[in-house]
Amino acid sequence: MTAFILRRSTQSIIVLFIMSLLVFSGVNLVGDPVEMLINPEADQAEVERVIKELGLDKPITEQYWYFLMNAFKGDLGTSFIFGEPALKLIVQRMPATIELALFSLFISLIFAIPLGIYAGLKPESKISKTIMAGSILGFSMPTFWVGIIFIMFFAVYLGWLPSTGRGEIGSFLGVKSSLFTLDGLSHIFLPALNLALFKLSSVIRLTRAGTREIIHQDYIKFARAKGVAESRVINVHLLKNILIPIVTIIGLEFGSLIAFSTVTETVFAWPGMGKLIIDSIYNLDRPVIVAYLMIIVIFFVFLNLLVDILYTLLDPRVRIQGSN
Amino acid sequence: METILEIKNLKTHFFTKAGLIKAVDDISFKIKKGEIVGLVGESGSGKSITGFSIIGLIDAPGRIVSGSINFKNEPLLNASSNRMQSLRGNRLAMIFQDPMMTLNPVLRIDTQMIETIKAHDKNISNQEAFRRCRDTLGLVGISSPEERMKAYPHQFSGGMRQRVCIAIAMLNKPDLIIADEPTTALDVTIQGQVIYEMQELCKKTGTALLWITHDLAVVAGIASKICVMYAGRIVEQGSVDDIINKPMHPYTIGLIKSVPSQNKKGEPLHQIEGMVPSMLELPIGCAFHDRCTKTIEKCKIEKPIETNQSDSRVIRCFNFKDIRK
Predict the structure, then answer these.
(1) CB distance A222–B93 less than 8 Å?
(2) A237 touching B, CB under 8 A?
(3) Cα–Cα distance for residue pair B18/B29, rounded to 1 Å
(4) Which of A105, A14, A76 is nearest to A280 (CA)?
(5) SS3 A324
(6) Under an 8 A CB cutoff, do B106 and A244 touch?
(7) Residue A265 belongs to a domain with what CATH number?
(8) Residue A289 and which of A25, A167, B201, B232 are 20 to 30 A apart at CA?
(9) A270 CA to chain B: closest CA distance, Å?
(10) Do B107 and A240 touch (CB under 8 A)?
């Protein structure tokens, strides 16, 4: 196992390096941040001073070299706009995004797995057909539009839930999160549901397909022939088998929940990383964009590793190479 | 001897989109306490469906249409699903054909064994259940059962897995085990061992066995009674001796002639002419008439009824007397 983790870490470093090269050159191709930053009426001397200050006067290879050297020291550059380290800005906003992603993942799983199993067990029933039709709707409707409809309905029309921002933050076992207060929960519910809708639909379909396949296996029939209660057949014999593909998808999709929660965060003015990256792209705040993308790459690499490890726990037939 | 299982006029039909399939059509037979009965037939003749009908696990679109199944004088067809569940794996066990598919790949052997005991005895302690499972595993010939309990199915060979399945079926010392081609998927050498072990176990515990197979040679070695099935019906039943040495039904005669060892060396193997009819469009009259060598006009229009030759000998044919001559 240790050998496996070490090998994967080495691979990740190579991936990170290539990614940094791509991102850095890509970001430097678009727009001119100086034009965005400086007062249009500033004179030439002023403009040159700013360019020198930001280090933009040097050739791009040299800029990249500086970036790389600093990155090794844990410094991913300083934001043009905020004048603060980019990494610090992102880390500050990370908890908000992670709690949003976790909560929406939670919502999608607690609904999707039971609904998917039901639809798989009784494919001909009216309820199952409704569930499947709903799931098509769930991933065909654009996230931003659903978000706006949610705000209109739950916040404006019914007035039940707040429409914007992150609520009061509570602390539990040293972890600070808005999930621990009632106000926080009321704020997170709509954006999390909005973000969960797509995941919910795909996990329903995945669970249904898995159930349809596994339920006809001999070992399910054999479990019944042993006199095992139907609830145990479903919750142990069936569930453990369908969880294998679900964990893979969930692991990978969790990365995309975090990386691409931008739309939901923008609609609900959720103060997370997604909102930060959108603002930074508007303002051509290059260091923040680069730092954000680097962090997302690390996230994906880490999640992949986690999925591989979880996989071996769920499926005894899979053994990681290099371990017994 | 006490009768454990009595099936009377059982009909299990499948209402598929393509049409009605009479998978099991009016069969009757008895199994006595501790007796080994062979149910022989080609693929698709309804042998397995008979087994699943007894244990109450017929999947849709199949349904038991009529008839009766009495297990220890209890009618099973009216039994509640709870009652059936408490009988299954406890008094009435089943072993499946393909041991590679029968055990759940993601659960350990001990989990899959202990749940069989716990499903029927809520009060038993984990240690006690574990001990019983381990001992049964040793009984079916698995070495160092204590360690093997912690293994997963993929760590066993096919023969070993079938032994695990047999152990699971034996766990609660049932009155009847339905063995659905339990040795078909195994190597010939392993086959012999498994058959021998099952025979011994049944002798020791007084468990009756319904041995479903397409292999007449296997069943002749262990069973005391044989039922021959063709297209959903039992065409002939009787003691092993009668069936093997004095077969009456043309199909049974053909079947016995088809066993390679019955042929003289150098001669082409015997085969029954024609094909097994599709269960969707069975011929009018006797289902076997267009392959039969003794067909008379009546066979083409009417389905033969069962005729009792003696107490244990039943045959479904219009023309069998001529065959005997």
Answers:
(1) no
(2) yes
(3) 30
(4) A76
(5) coil
(6) yes
(7) 1.10.3720.10
(8) A167
(9) 41
(10) yes
Say whether the ipTM exceeds 0.90.
no
C-alpha distance from B116 to closest chain A C-alpha (Å): 6
Are B36 and B224 in contact by the 8 Å Cβ rule? The answer is yes
Long-range pairs of A269-273 with CB within 8 A, sequence gap ≥ 24: A269/A164, A269/A165, A270/A96, A270/A97, A270/A100, A270/A164, A270/A165, A270/A166, A270/A191, A271/A93, A271/A96, A271/A165, A271/A166, A272/A93, A272/A94, A272/A96, A272/A97, A272/A100, A273/A90, A273/A93, A273/A94, A273/A96, A273/A97
Instruction: Calculate the alpha carbon distances from A17 to A67, A277, B62 in Å.
Output: 12, 21, 61
pLDDT digits (tens, 9 = 90+) for B123-179: 889 999 999 999 888 888 888 888 899 999 999 988 889 889 988 998 888 999 999
pLDDT tier, A221 (very low <50, low <70, confident <90, very high otherwise): very high
A227·B154 Cβ contact <8 A? no
pLDDT digits (tens, 9 = 90+) for A172-205: 766 777 777 777 777 888 888 888 888 889 899 9
- The answer to whether the CB atoms of B104 and A228 lie below 8 A apart is no
Query: Which of A223, A224, A315 lies at the smallest CB-CB distance from B106?
Result: A315
Residues A233, A184: Cα–Cα separation, whole Å: 39
Burial A256-294 (b: 16+ CB within 10 A, else e): bbbbebbbbbbbbebbbbbbbbeebbebbbbbbbbbbbb
Question: What is the number of domains present in chain A?
Answer: 1
pLDDT tens for each residue of A85-133: 888 888 888 888 888 888 889 998 999 999 999 999 998 889 999 999 8
**What residue type is assigned to position B59 of the chain?**
D
C-alpha angle B195/B173/B24, rounded to 5°?
65
Domain with CATH 3.40.50.300 in chain B: 3-91+172-324
Domain B3-91+172-324 has CATH 3.40.50.300: yes
Question: Roughly how many angstroms between the first and final C-alpha of chain B, as a whole number?
Answer: 33
* Residues B239-272: tens digit of each pLDDT: 988 888 888 888 888 888 887 776 777 777 778 8
Q: Would you state the pLDDT for residue A295?
A: 86
On whether residue A181 sits in a domain, the answer given is: yes
